[in-house]
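anyone seen this seq b4? input:
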Amino acid sequence: MNYDLFVKSILDYIENRVAEEITPEDAAQAAGFSVSHFRAVFRDTTGETLSRYITYRRLCHAASELMRTGRPIVDIAMTYGFGSHDVFIRAFKRMFGETPSNFRMNRRKMSSTLIVPGVFGPTVFGMEERRMRLDNRNFEEMDAGTLYGVVPRVSYFNQEIELTPFIACLKACLAYMGQEVSYARLLCGSGTAFRLMWNPKYWDGGNVDILCMSKDPTEPLRRAFKAAGREYDLLSKPGKAGHNMVESAPEGIPRIKTGMKEEFLELVKGEIDSGRPLIGFGIIGPPEACIIAGYREGGETLIGWNFFQEMPEFASVVGKEPCGYFNRKGWYEHPETIALMAIGEEVPMTDEREFLKDVLGYALKTMETERVNDHAGGFAAYEAWAEALSRESEFPKDAQLPMLLERQMCHGDAMTMVGEGRWYAQLFLEQEADKFPELQGDLKAASQLFRQEHKVVTDMGLLIGGMGMGEKQARNLARPEVRREIVGMIRQCAQWDKEASEHIKKAVSLL
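predicted toks r here
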């Protein structure tokens, strides 16, 4: 009997549940075998006992967490089923030759290994040769692939606050591919850290979408890739939104094109089968970015991380993998799905002085452009935001909760743009000031103003009961005295933004 598909399915089953208790009985049932037959087949086809293989995969995932996160070692040990800290240390040292603490301190290199065709998982660099006897098997019947374990999760609820989906997804994908680029560099390089958008015509839940911040919606995307020193390919759907991405891009950028469904499926399969995650726009909920880390049924079902995957309003169309990934069938037909981006090869980085000059120049453009299509931008967006909160007619005493939640959502998105953006802007400017002593005065002055804006946004959140978007915050925002105080804070932030822009102009003149 040919056990190729048995091998693939069981190794996929284990990788997808590596942080769960996996019993021989459960694995045998998944394979459709008796326990005794299952054990024999697994050992004969892989050269490993089931228990040793599971321990090895758990240790590889634990090693990945040691490198990617600051979680306590004992917590990582418990996550991967080791009964105590001491048991974990002994097992880790036997496998990798050093204790977990030394492994983390020495910054050992992790890599992604092909477990069987279509299934990737983390391994310690140099351990790739610890392979099972599977290399010459025939897996042509398989039509699925997944990248497990080392694609960092993106979420609004992560411990590390990263709230701009595209930037968070790009950072996570690059980390999986072995390139560490800071969130601050990507956020500022894209111009996103300096934005504020507000639609003065209606309460617009799309204000926060970075595709709205420039007349060319791909510009912040392209700039983020430039900040990372990476090539890319962007494939958009036919239709208004996707067509606009292609038509608005400057001439001479061949990596942006429109394609039909077949081309989308081929792009997904080609990238995942090569061990590379993609970025999708849409897939679940609004057209925000998400990570695509796997596929099934020729690409009809996608697997990965999405900021909206846990939200109950999408529960009817979204499934969940045991490892936490979403799975989504019918993603291409979802009206908010507009594009995919593939991450290309590394390219030479721009000289840091030229990079900083370009970033600061685009920051000024972003801060000073008063209108982008239907949205007020920059300084004008602060006033449009303040005016919207000042209109008593928008907050009638008998307002229904959905109306108030809509207002709170837009207000919360504006707080996010300023609060998160200016926080990372001040971090970036502080770092750059240390590289260029002649710019320190102006860069640090602008940084301090951005830090003050972040503090005021935090105070806005306290006024309404926190940064959440629930009933409590919505009803507090409806109170006239609260909104009057917030309007004053918004206008103070606008003034600090203007002062910061003057310091940035002076820095640019010196570059």
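The chain has a mean pLDDT of 90. The longest helix spans residues 401-435. kinda curious what u guys think
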